[in-house]
Write a structure and sequence with these properties.
Blueprint: H1 2-9, H2 19-32, E1 37-40, E2 46-50, E3 53-62, E4 67-73, E5 79-84, H3 89-92, E6 96-99, E7 104-109, E8 123-126, H4 132-138, E9 144-147, E10 151-154, E11 157-160, H5 163-177, E12 184-191, H6 199-208, E13 212-219, E14 239-244, E15 247-248, H7 251-263, E16 269-272, H8 280-283, E17 292-298, E18 307-310, H9 311-324
Parallel strand pairs: 3-12, 3-13, 13-17, 14-16
Antiparallel strand pairs: 1-2, 2-12, 4-5, 4-9, 6-7, 6-9, 7-8, 10-11, 11-18, 14-15, 14-17
Helix pairs in contact: 1-5, 2-5, 5-9, 7-9
Amino acid sequence: MKDTLARLSQSFGPSGREEEIRTQLTKELAALDKNLAIRTDALGNLIATKPGDEKRLLLAAHMDEIALLVTHIDDLGFLRFSPVGGHDPRLLLGARVIFANGTMGTIGREELKDKEDLKLDKLFIDIGASSRAEAEENCPIGSMAVFAPHFSTQGSRIMAKALDNRAGCTVLLEVIRNLPPVDYQIDFVFTVQEEVGLRGARTAAYQLQPHLAVAVDVTRTGDTPEAPVMAVELGKGPAIKVKDRSFISHPRVKDLLEETARSQDIPYQLEILERGGTDAGSIHLTREGIPTGVISIPTRYIHSPAEIIDYRDLKNAALLLCSFLQHKDLFSSL
């Protein structure tokens, strides 16, 4: 799983420009050789379907990452930008970024009268250009940049950019690799544009009409110095979501996930996320409503250049989801 995660996390794939990460995911799926029907829908979601009977399960993980969109280039070649997804200007200052064509840059700031004035409109990207023309040739207005790729491990901990949500994509691939024999249809969906409004999940769920859904994403932790109080820590197991800003978990789906974890002796935590949401926020409201749950991977420093997860949580998330697929009451109790 580590090698898969490394390949995915280092792929370029900002919201709305997911071509490279979708190509990489397609290669990963082909290498698994599971005879899945693979297609890309009109919005760009990558869908891999295991056929089955009339019951349908949707498993979703978004493939896009946050980005910066070039909005203006000044005479000296400095790039102004707007956020694609949620960005904290304090985490951007000094960060290295990369564009789709490989152009590298770093983020600088204007002189500030007060440190409290640090806002996104005070920042710019420096790609080393000496003129507007040079900058426009490499990174014209409308270009997107993401954090520069890197991947490192220390014991069970993994540090990289875009673990949100390439970690979730890795879990879905691992589930496909170890897919248990089940009779119902499973649609594995690697969604687009989650970071800008859960958009891909909305259209995918509408077309697939599942009877049940589970999203896999990352969640924040409360285990760093003076962190907001939250009962989620690295290394204590995947988190089963109770609630976030966009979603309250279907009680039976949450219970089924907990029952599965307990029966298989898989460590788990319960998650209440007070800021942010996941694809489940769109999925559960589709058509007449879809019973939906979420498995979350505890992650430090989400939406930063260096997110951190624990490999044990990643492996246990995949094990939990694989075991969940075999629950005898998966559809009967909903």
